[in-house]
Design goal:
Layout: E1 9-13, H1 18-29, E2 33-38, H2 41-51, E3 55-59, H3 65-79, E4 84-87, E5 93-95, H4 103-131, E6 134-139, H5 152-172, E7 177-184, H6 190-196, H7 203-211, H8 222-233, E8 244-247, H9 251-254, E9 270-273, E10 276-279
Parallel strand pairs: 1-2, 1-4, 2-3, 4-6, 6-7, 7-8
Antiparallel strand pairs: 5-9, 9-10
The structure holds nicotinamide-adenine-dinucleotide.
The site of nicotinamide-adenine-dinucleotide (NAD) has 29 residues, from helix 1 and helix 6.
Amino acid sequence: MSGRLAGKVAVITGGASGIGEGTARRFHAEGACVVIADVQEGPGAALAAELGDGALFRRTDVTREEDVAALVDTAVEVFGGLDVMFNNAGVMGALGPIDRTRLADADLTIAVDLRGVLCGMKHAARVMKPRRSGSIISTSSPAGVLGGVGPHVYSAVKAGIIGLSNSVAAELRRFGVRCNVIVPGAVVSPMTAELVAEGAADLAGAQTALSGTAYMDRPLRPADIAAGALYLASDDAALVTGTVLPVDAGMTGAGGPSPFATGRYEEPAGLLEAGRRTDAST
Ligand SMILES: NC(=O)c1ccc[n+]([C@@H]2O[C@H](COP(=O)([O-])OP(=O)(O)OC[C@H]3O[C@@H](n4cnc5c(N)ncnc54)[C@H](O)[C@@H]3O)[C@@H](O)[C@H]2O)c1
């Protein structure tokens, strides 16, 4: 098998949808064996079946350590190792003004978006340290760098991912293991379709809505983020660790309004989790 990831094994959390799905497709096309991990069994299993040899789906809830441990063990047992861990699963989580934030919603957001990433790093490191090689990539957000572009708790956890990744990079570099963060701008995906269009399935609506606020000639697509993740996963980035790679059409560096800021602090408080929205009033 040829390709920039030939012979490598990659685990991708949140791999059934959006950025994770796009990355699973690209990594597989570049010769990697991929383990697609997600709570969404139908789409995850369908993607693995479509990709065929060198791809499998494993149902994984990143808030459950036993799931993440078993996920990593599956990669090792089935494909012979673990070269790339992409901690990408995430939810928008707790919504609304700070004085109405429900702490149970905040706990769930932290559990998925930050503790889930920590758990992925822990179990990837368990395998990668003795092998003295590996690339850990985690998905943050412009909200982790800037105020006013996303919900409060989401902003906190996405900032936390950057601090965590840099800290882990400092420990793991002497073991040959790299640890980096990718910051996607506004990407057309089920998550953003839920925010700016008619629901998670309305990708055409999201494309239209995000085209109106795009900084360059089009909104970002999952494939754009996959290309950044591919670089960080590949041997081209052999000496790249402790970095944050924005793939955001300049949102964090050159500035600009966020399509997700409007109305995010308005009532009612609520929770946006994997396409399911609840309101505090219900
Ligand atoms: N789309 C954007 O504009 C954008 C921008 C910046 C950052 N991000 C981040 O990129 C990542 C992917 O987002 P996306 O746009 O592809 O969203 P998405 O909703 O399309 O995909 C996220 C996936 O994570 C899965 N997931 C949710 N909770 C999980 C859990 N507990 N365990 C395992 N899987 C779980 C979902 O089922 C879903 O398949 C997220 O971390 C998100 O915060 C997205």
